[in-house]
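Please decode residue identities from the backbone states below.
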């Protein structure tokens, strides 16, 4: 049995502009897609302005990190990543039984994906259904029920929150962006006893776009939960991880996967914004 596949190119441009001269900065970019069983990176390149030497390493969570220092005065930082990726929809296997998921060895191994972080912590009425979800026999069906519950209570609204928002803040507002919906879902999955991680990457918006035609893509977030293998689910759109989901990074929450972060000496900074363009190569 084969799954649908796409060959895509991705251009991701972002950065910061400063209210004056920044004297020095240290930065990390997580903008390179990863190769996996259902995703193959054919080409990737990151360019930075001002021009400086770049180094790469793989972090604790398996994400490719591009690190760089800028020691000269600069008024703007630009980072552009270009990638070509072959992507297939992951096949969903038979899930573990709850008794297997609660095995002490597995619980210890996945402990950091079972505990709430400051980003994913939820309290009060949000957690009310967790006890009943733990009695849904099929783990995949349980996760789908949690996703439906989140979408019923947290409406997707572009610009509704800032990048620093927490799951509880999004829950209380009743709206948020994909990052918020993912954080809420992670909080509920973990509270139910299901190991779950935050995934960031890109979402190709249309299977109908012509080959070679660049379209506006999206920086996107979704979850992967452990059901015997990591299984992707996009709670914002209510779908499984498809060939249109290009994985860049994973971790406990957004703080582990931020596309560009760093420290600098200088005046206030503002984002240049994010541009994501994607096109099919065949």
């Amino acid at each position: 049995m084969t799954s649908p596949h796409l060959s895509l190119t991705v251009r991701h441009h972002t950065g910061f502009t400063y209210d004056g001269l920044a004297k020095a900065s240290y930065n990390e970019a997580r903008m390179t897609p990863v190769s996996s069983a259902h995703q193959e990176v054919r080409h990737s390149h990151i360019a930075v302005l001002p021009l400086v030497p770049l180094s790469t390493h793989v972090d604790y969570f398996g994400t490719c990190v591009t690190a760089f220092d800028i020691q000269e005065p600069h008024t703007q930082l630009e980072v552009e990543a270009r990638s070509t990726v072959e992507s297939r929809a992951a096949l969903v296997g038979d899930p573990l039984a709850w008794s297997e998921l609660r095995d002490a060895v597995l619980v210890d191994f996945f402990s950091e994906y079972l505990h709430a972080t400051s980003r994913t912590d939820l309290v009060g009425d949000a957690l009310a259904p967790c006890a009943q979800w733990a009695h849904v026999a099929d783990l995949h069906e349980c996760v789908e029920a949690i996703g439906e519950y989140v979408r019923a209570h947290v409406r997707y609204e572009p610009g509704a929150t800032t990048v620093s928002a927490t799951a509880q803040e999004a829950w209380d507002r009743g709206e948020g962006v994909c990052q918020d919906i993912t954080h809420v879902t992670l909080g509920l999955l973990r509270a139910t006893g299901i190991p779950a991680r935050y995934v960031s990457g890109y979402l190709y918006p249309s299977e109908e776009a012509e080959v070679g035609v660049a379209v506006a893509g999206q920086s996107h977030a979704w979850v992967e939960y452990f059901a015997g293998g990591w299984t992707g689910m996009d709670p914002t759109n209510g779908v499984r991880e498809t060939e249109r989901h290009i994985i860049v990074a994973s971790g406990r929450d957004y703080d582990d996967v931020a596309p560009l972060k760093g420290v600098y000496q200088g005046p206030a900074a503002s984002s240049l914004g994010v541009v994501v363009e994607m096109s099919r190569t065949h």
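Observation: The mean pLDDT is 93.
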